[in-house]
Design a protein that fits this description.
The complex is a heterodimer. Chain A is of the alpha+beta class. Chain A is 19% helix and 35% strand. Chain A has a single domain, classed as RNA polymerase II/Efflux pump adaptor protein, barrel-sandwich hybrid domain (OB fold (Dihydrolipoamide Acetyltransferase, E2P), Beta Barrel), CATH 2.40.50. In chain A, strand 2 and strand 3 form a beta hairpin. Chain A is globular. Chain B has 3 domains: 144 residues, Gyrase A, domain 2, CATH 3.30.1360; 85 residues, Aminomethyltransferase beta-barrel domains (Alpha-Beta Plaits, 2-Layer Sandwich); 82 residues, Beta Barrel (Elongation Factor Tu (Ef-tu), domain 3), CATH 2.40.30.110. Helix content of chain B is 20%, strand content 33%. Chain B is built from 8 helices and 20 strands. In chain B, strands 11-12-13-10-4-14 form a 6-stranded mixed sheet. In chain B, strands 15-18-17-16-19-20 form a 6-stranded antiparallel β-barrel. In chain B, strand 11 and strand 12 form a beta hairpin. The longest helix of chain B has 14 residues. The N and C termini of chain B lie far apart (47 Å). The chains are: A alpha+beta, B alpha+beta. At the A-B interface, strand 4 and strand 6 of A face helix 2 and helix 7 of B.
C-alpha cells in the first residue's frame, strides 16, 4: 500500500491536507477498509474548537464504531455535508470526496507531531 | 479478561480455514473459532444473499446426536419443545433451558429416524449444551453422541439456492419442505440436506463429515459463483438474521432471558406429557407474563443503535438495545431491544441513548424484512 505523499497522518489513521491556514481532514484508505462499509459519520458543527488528539466525531460501519481524533487543534470551518446522505464516499474516495472537516489551524507547529506518507506506510505495514 | 498462565485460549479452525485464507477473508475469533467475518464487504455479501445466493461456512456449529429407543422421550425431558411430535424428516426450533427458565441455548432439532435426532447448537454453547444433554439423558434409554468436531456444515442461502443445489444432489428438493431434512448425497458425498437457515431467505444447510466438507465447499462455491453468488462471512450473517428478526444467543438470548421474554413462548410446549427441566419456572412466566418484551426499533434520528445502548420512554428508562445495525435492505438503522411490556406496542415512540444523544426510535413489528413468497 502507498498513501498520498502530500498529506500528513496520525497514528489513529486520520489524514490532513494543509492549504494555507486551513487543513482538510479525513480518514485513510486503510482505516476505511478496516472498518468496512461505512454507514454513518457523526461530525462536529462548524465553529467548534478542536483539540489535537481529542475525539471530534464518530464513524460507524455496519459492524464497528470508531472515534475520530483531531490531527490538529483549531476551529471547524466546514464539514462535508455530503456524508450525511452518502457516508459510503469515505470508502470509495477517502482522500477526495470522502473528506470530513476543514479546520482553521491554530498552531502550525503541531504539524510536526504528524507522520509523513512514508512513516504512515511503515506504521500500517507493521500492523 | 484474565487468562491463566500457561493456558492460552484454544482457537479452533474449521476444515475450510485454508480456503478462507486463499479467498482473502478477514478472520475473527468468534466463540473460540477462527471464522471469516467478510470476504469482500458485508453489504455486498448481504445483498448477494437477498437478491441471488451466498455460501456460508458454519462448521463451528455443534451437532449433537441423540439416539436410542427412548430418544424422543428423553430429549423431550431435556428441552422445552416436544420432539416426539416431530415426524421423521422434519425439524423444530427449540431451546434448552436451566431450571430457572433461563436459556442455555437455542437449537434446531431434526428427527432423522424414530429413534434418532440431531440437535444443532450454537458454537459458543456447544459444550454447555452437550454437557446438559449428557446429564439430562443419564439413566434413560438414549445416548448422546457429540459429533461437533467430526461434522462440517455449509449453508446455501438466497432465492437461487434451489437452482444452485439441484444439479448436485440426489435429494428431491421439490419434496423438501421448509424445516425438513433428508439424507442423500451432494456431489457424491454423503450428506444431510436441511431446508433451514438464518437469513430470512430460502436455502439449505448441508451437513457432512469434516473430512469431506472441503470438497463440498469447492463444488458448491463454483455452483454459487455460477449463479452470480458469493461466499458470505459472519458479518452479513448477522445483518441478515437481524433484518429477519431472528434472535442471536449472547444478544437477545442468554441465561437471564426466558423464551417468553424473547417472544418465543410458542416454542415451549407446556402441554407435553413429559416433565422437562425449567417447566415449573416457565409455567410461572407463562401465567404471569414476562417482565420485558423484545421489540423491533427503526431509528428515526441520526446514529446507529448498538448492543447495550439504553432505551428510554420519555424520562423513564425502559430497556436496552440487544442488537443494532444499519439495514442494508431497508437503508435505515434498525435494532432489537428489550423494553417494559407496556412500552412495546408497535407505533410507540421511544428514545435510544446513542453516546451522548437521545435519538428517536419507533417500535415496529418483527421481522423487519420478510421475503416475498
Amino acid at each position: 500500500m502507498s498513501v498520498p505523499n502530500d498529506l500528513r497522518y496520525t497514528r489513529d489513521h486520520e489524514w490532513l491536507r494543509l492549504d494555507g491556514e486551513e487543513a482538510t481532514v479525513g480518514i485513510t484508505a486503510y482505516a476505511a477498509d478496516q472498518l468496512g462499509d461505512i454507514v454513518f459519520v457523526e461530525l462536529p458543527d462548524a465553529g467548534r474548537e478542536l483539540d489535537q488528539a481529542r475525539p471530534f466525531g464518530v464513524v460507524e460501519s455496519v459492524k464497528a464504531v470508531s472515534d475520530l481524533f483531531a490531527p490538529i487543534s483549531g476551529e471547524v470551518v466546514a464539514i462535508n455535508a455530503a456524508l450525511a446522505a452518502g457516508p459510503e464516499l469515505v470508502n470509495s474516495d477517502p482522500y477526495g470526496d470522502g473528506w470530513m472537516i476543514k479546520v482553521k489551524v491554530a498552531d502550525a507547529s503541531q504539524l510536526d507531531d504528524l507522520l509523513d506518507g512514508e512513516a504512515y506506510d511503515a506504521l500500517v505495514a507493521a500492523g | 479478561m484474565t487468562e491463566l498462565a500457561g493456558q492460552p485460549p484454544i482457537v479452533h479452525e474449521t476444515p475450510l480455514a485454508a480456503r478462507h485464507a486463499s479467498l482473502g477473508a478477514r478472520m475473527i475469533d468468534f466463540a473460540g473459532w477462527e471464522m471469516p467475518v467478510q470476504y469482500t464487504s458485508i453489504v455486498t455479501e448481504h445483498r448477494a444473499v437477498r437478491e441471488r445466493v451466498g455460501l456460508f461456512d458454519l462448521s463451528h456449529m455443534g451437532e449433537l446426536f441423540v439416539e436410542g429407543p427412548a430418544a424422543a422421550e428423553a430429549l423431550g425431558g431435556a428441552i422445552v419443545s416436544d420432539p416426539s411430535a416431530l415426524a421423521v424428516g422434519r425439524a423444530q426450533y427449540s431451546m434448552i433451558c436451566a431450571a430457572d427458565g433461563g436459556i442455555i441455548d437455542d437449537l434446531i432439532v431434526y428427527r432423522l429416524a424414530d429413534d434418532r435426532f440431531m440437535v444443532v447448537a450454537n458454537a459458543a454453547n456447544a459444550t454447555a449444551v452437550s454437557d446438559a444433554l449428557a446429564e439430562r439423558l443419564r439413566g434413560s434409554r438414549a445416548v448422546l453422541d457429540d459429533r461437533s468436531l467430526a461434522m462440517g456444515l455449509v449453508a446455501i442461502q438466497g432465492p437461487r439456492s434451489v437452482e444452485v443445489l439441484r444439479p448436485h444432489t440426489d435429494v428431491d428438493l421439490d419434496q423438501l419442505k421448509y424445516y425438513a431434512i433428508a439424507e442423500g448425497t451432494v456431489g457424491g458425498i454423503s450428506a444431510l440436506v436441511a431446508r433451514t437457515g438464518y437469513t430470512g431467505e430460502d436455502g439449505f444447510e448441508v451437513f457432512a463429515d469434516s473430512g469431506r466438507i472441503g470438497e463440498l465447499w469447492d463444488l458448491l462455491l463454483d455452483a454459487v459463483r455460477g449463479a452470480d453468488g458469493v461466499p458470505v462471512g459472519l458479518g452479513a450473517r448477522d445483518t441478515l438474521r437481524l433484518e429477519a428478526g431472528m434472535p442471536l444467543y449472547g444478544n437477545e438470548l442468554d441465561l437471564t432471558a426466558t423464551p417468553y421474554d424473547a417472544g418465543l413462548g410458542r416454542v415451549v410446549k407446556l402441554d407435553k406429557t413429559m416433565d422437562f427441566v425449567g417447566r415449573t419456572a416457565l409455567e410461572r412466566v407463562a401465567a404471569d407474563g414476562p417482565k420485558r418484551r423484545l421489540v423491533g426499533l427503526i431509528i428515526e434520528g441520526r446514529g446507529i443503535a448498538r448492543h447495550g445502548h439504553p432505551v428510554h420512554a420519555g424520562e423513564r428508562r425502559t430497556g436496552v438495545v440487544t442488537s443494532g445495525t444499519h439495514s442494508p435492505t431497508l437503508g435505515v438503522p434498525i435494532a432489537m431491544a428489550y423494553v417494559t411490556p407496556t412500552d412495546g406496542e408497535p407505533g410507540t415512540m421511544l428514545d435510544v441513548e446513542i453516546r451522548d444523544a437521545r435519538v428517536p426510535a419507533r417500535v415496529v413489528p418483527l421481522p423487519f424484512y420478510r421475503r416475498s413468497a
